[in-house]
UniProtKB/TrEMBL annotation:
Full protein name: Paraneoplastic antigen-like protein 5
Residue ranges annotated for the Paraneoplastic antigen Ma-like N-terminal domain, each copy included: 1-92
Domain named Paraneoplastic antigen Ma-like C-terminal: residues: 175-335
Highest classification ranks of the organism: Eukaryota, Metazoa, Chordata, Craniata, Vertebrata
Pfam families from the UniProt entry: PNMA, PNMA_N
Chain residue ranges for the region called Disordered: 346-366
UniProt-listed InterPro entries: PNMA, PNMA_C, PNMA_N
Coiled-coil portions: none
């Protein structure tokens, strides 16, 4: 109906329908002198529009306004709605198509407009989302339909989150907390560690994580979460895990957990990577208890590693761990670097200890003057830094 009104009105005003716009839903409180300035300031594209008339539409109980643009209307540039003082104005344009679009296309455009509206976008934003600049003339041939589909798919991937049901996931391990373990149930501490890691990896809303957590609970453990949801239906997964920890975990206070983390030191003969892995379990428990904020996790880990590694360990110097405390690496990056450095040092020790057989019975060894132990290398680098200072 609105489109027919636009076309008939344009003909009566001797306006090319391709240059016309119809704005509906305008309430009586907006007079003719204020409507045109509002439209001109709503978007840059409508900055040159001119109001040609106003008509009261009885079916809608509001006014419809006819506007004219200097050139043919580009539907991609026109916003579908304009919000003015909590009142929504609808904008209708005939566009430059010689014939009405098929019903399937119209339905698709309606769905696309509704989807973009939820994301705070309009059809006018589509050229930018598709990597096209409407202000620059096209010097290359227009994209083919397949290229448009691919570009549109990439744009939707950026704004559409994955649906929880479309992302496959492994079910969590069972836990009941009852006096008699059910088949397949494991102890609480390993279960909590595994569950926490899995929930952190899943890129789904918190409500979906809570649903998956409830799926794996039985008996007393399930009763704990049910009671928690009665008082707070939207309880977060972090609070659910904390409640289970209080009910079935070790009876350790916040201070006790944090002290265990701070007192963890590298043991004699223990590899640095093994020490970091042992320390990570203590850190995760401190985070669960609220002793360490998640935002400070990497910084806290690195600070304790610097304190806990044995004195004069070459890895501490080679990876420059002290200098990186302002920009600490993540756990995965840190353990990767440490293990690579351990393998490099182990390969160097094998090279020094193993003689290399030459032709005949003569054995060739690396000159002793060129052989440098890790401790000597550490001492040399410290001397260089001291001379520079």
């Amino acid at each position: 109906m609105a489109l027919h009104l636009l076309e008939d009105w344009c003909k009566g005003m001797t306006i090319d329908p391709k240059n016309g716009l119809l704005v509906t839903g305008v309430s009586e409180e907006f007079d003719e002198g204020s409507i045109e300035p509002i439209l001109r300031t709503s978007t840059k594209y409508l900055s040159e529009c001119k109001m040609r008339g106003r008509m009261f539409v009885r079916e809608e109980g509001a006014f419809a306004v006819l506007c004219e643009l200097p050139s043919a209307v580009d539907p991609l540039q026109v916003p579908s709605t304009i919000t003015v003082e909590d009142v929504v104005w609808r904008v209708i344009a005939t566009g430059s198509q010689p014939s009405p679009a098929p019903a399937s296309n119209v339905e698709f455009l309606k769905k696309m407009t509704a989807f973009l509206g939820k994301e705070g976008k309009t059809l006018a934003d589509m050229p930018g989302l598709l990597g096209l600049d409407p202000g620059v003339p096209h010097l290359e041939p227009a994209p083919s339909p397949d290229e448009w589909v691919k570009a549109l798919g990439k744009a939707l991937e950026k704004v559409v989150p994955p649906h929880p049901e479309s992302s496959p996931y492994r079910k969590l391990r069972l836990f009941s907390g009852g006096p008699t373990p059910i088949p397949g149930e494991e102890a609480f501490e390993p279960w909590l560690e595994h569950t926490t890691e899995m929930l952190q990896e899943w890129a789904v809303p918190d409500a979906e994580k809570r649903r998956r957590l409830v799926e794996c609970l039985r008996g007393p453990a399930l009763d704990v979460i049910r009671t928690l949801k009665l008082s707070n239906p939207g309880v977060k997964v972090k609070d659910c895990l904390e409640a289970l920890d209080h009910a079935f975990g070790r009876t350790e206070g916040l201070e006790d957990v944090y002290c265990k983390f701070l007192n963890a030191r590298q043991q004699k003969g223990e590899k640095v990577s093994t020490y970091i892995q042992r320390l990570e379990k203590l850190l995760q428990r401190a985070i669960m208890r609220g002793a360490v904020a998640v935002e400070q996790m990497d910084r806290t880990r690195l600070a304790q590693i610097v304190r806990g590694i044995q004195y004069q360990n070459p890895i501490l110097l080679h990876l420059r761990l002290r200098e990186r405390q302002d920009n600490p690496p993540s756990y995965s990056q840190l353990i990767k670097e440490v293990r690579e450095e351990e393998e490099r040092q182990a390969a160097g020790e094998v090279w020094e200890a193993q003689p290399h057989q030459a032709t005949g019975s003569t054995s060739i060894r690396m000159p002793k003057a060129l052989m440098v132990t890790p401790q000597e290398e550490l001492t040399q680098q410290v001397q260089v830094l001291t001379q520079k200072e």
